[in-house]
Amino acid sequence: MTNRILVILPHPDDEAFGVSGTLAKYINEGAFVTYGCLTLGEMGRNMGVPPFANRVTLPAIRALELEESCRAIGIQDVRMLGFHDKTIEFEDKEFLDGTIRALIEETQPELIFTFYPGHAVHPDHDACGAAVIRTVVRMPSSLRPTVRCVAFSKNREEALGKPDVTVDVRAFLKQKMASIQAHRSQFQIAETIAGGKLSKRELEERFGTESFYTYRFD
After folding, report:
1. Which secondary structure element, helix H or strand E, spans residue 7, and what is its range?
2. Which of 144, 63, 134 is nearest to 96 (CA)?
3. How do residues 146-164 score in pLDDT, each as one tens digit?
4. Which run of H or E residues covers position 168?
5. What whole-number distance in Å separates Cα of residue 190 and Cα of residue 116?
6. For residue 184, which of 21, 53, 70, 85 has the smallest C-alpha distance?
């Protein structure tokens, strides 16, 4: 059984599609999850449909959406780490890595979820994953937590092979759908889900599994 999990992702909503069902499953089995979200996604272009946010109000709205998503999943500990959206790749690496290292030292996770650097499409995603890997690789090998990475670049399987971990989250679709729907400013799909426009089979086919690459440090 995995008791302590740390999630390190750059934006509110990054957890929703890729890892929410898996986290709900672990939490149901007794795990304690800490989510370190680097930014508030304050530079996002989406403002809701129809728009209900603006550039000034968006950060606070996205913070509330993140909290709602985490409640839906069952995440017990949410940390908003205060970095700036769309600038993670330009942050001072010592400061960024030090923030991550302090969180690891505090929470002592057995398992970390993040993005696979170079295979997560968005520069913030790649820079976040790279910072996690840089930090964990500096740890003594006997103390390193397992790191599982989300990858969704078009060439991921060509470069990395098939994911080595696939989690059946069909029993936790309620939590996953609630997590997605919490991010109302970002996802029009929330209305499709809430309106019952997808059948149970379509939901399971589209959202019923989550796949990860276990990062190999050697």
Report:
1. strand 4-9
2. 134
3. 999 999 999 999 999 999 9
4. strand 165-168
5. 26
6. 53
Token output for 175: 């939590």
Q: Please, what are the domains in the chain?
A: 4-214 (3.40.50.10320)
Position 193 scores a pLDDT of: 59
Q: Residue 38 is encoded by which pair of tokens? A: 């680097």
Residues of the chain with pLDDT under 70: 189-197
H-helix or E-strand containing 97? helix 93-107
Contact 169, 21 (CB under 8 A): yes
Tokens, residue 207: 């959202």
Tokens encoding 33: 């999850």
Distance CA 11, CA 128 (A): 10
8 A C-beta contact, residue 15 and residue 73: yes
Q: Describe the strand order of the beta sheet including 165-168 as a list of residue ranges.
A: 77-80, 32-37, 4-9, 111-115, 146-150, 209-214, 165-168
* 3 state SS of 141: helix
Note the pLDDT tens digit of each residue in 4-32. 999 999 999 999 999 999 999 999 999 99
